[in-house]
């Protein structure tokens, strides 16, 4: 290798792309990070309204298991988060659930703490107990390739029904979790994805559902100083660069990427874009669409999101700063947040500032802002009646078509791993296959570090990034999983033609 630093081009400046760029720049690589939008950050880039008020594409929580992101902000010297917060859940008939701060309560073996400490207001005990048989599926699903293949072709709704979960428990507990966790109703969610998400965020350890929030937009409080540190390390972050193709040499290795009339040469390429963005690149790239693994990405889908921010003319008491809602529309989940309590910018606001985000929001996107705002106020008033009399004095609506990954039944076979058939082209993002076990923003960031480590291993320069593993399963879960796997192995040896994969 010559004396110049190896060149790495990273496509996409969200959690994955920034994570890869930061580590590789610190290792002395010539890093160029390309972002199609006007600001780094992808879906969490913040911006201002014409009146100078902050808005962003939805509010993103940071859960207790986000060990790598919490470690990152410490390394960056940032203090962006609120204290741990309590949350509530509403339906059209009122308050349904209040969640405590689980880490403050005596720790019980999972899932007893979650079961006993969550304060259900209406759901009968007999319905809650109907979830017990589902524990077998949570034990059986160990995030392995075999487990994903066992459960991915089944819908989450079928899974819960087959394991005897009561209709009411499904309707009032599990489906709301799916609507705000996987962004789609249960009949449209992979059972494998549902089990992975529920276990990681709620059931693996008692404190896992505890959450903090950014005290302003993530773009301003985390991504902007993060980009500055990447640039100080020598990395280049270029916005409004939409990648359209990948250049390959005669050996089939990537030599760069194409952005309109610009070509960025590379010794390795890392893609860190969402499903929709990757599909656009594949569609326009003769090099990628000639490979089946990339063509197969066209079988994946994504979900519409709508983020709204409303300013009211008076103070309204909102009991909990973060709230999830179900039952208002059959296939849409939504959340609302008291930004006076969460964001420093609005702490002394004379009125009330509320963020309301809608997932699987396809039916809302055709509506105008003037049609959407009254609908949001109506739903808020159903939860907290004081919103009926308040007046909206300003608002912002952000439409995000095909914005988040849809983990549909059968989608696992089309998801890409970090390594591809192009030996120096690596994948990252929250939809990329990883055995780390994390989800959402943490998963995106981890896969960015994993892709960086693959580039380091190939180019043989620098030290791999340290990736903190998820907290190990509790001993009783480890024992049950070990026993279950032994029984599976025994069954396959005795009845190989009948035992399900």
Automatic annotation (TrEMBL):
Protein name, per record: FAD-dependent oxidoreductase
Domain of life assignment: Bacteria
Domain called Amine oxidase: residue spans: 16-454
Taxon lineage: Bacteria, Bacillati, Cyanobacteriota, Cyanophyceae, Leptolyngbyales
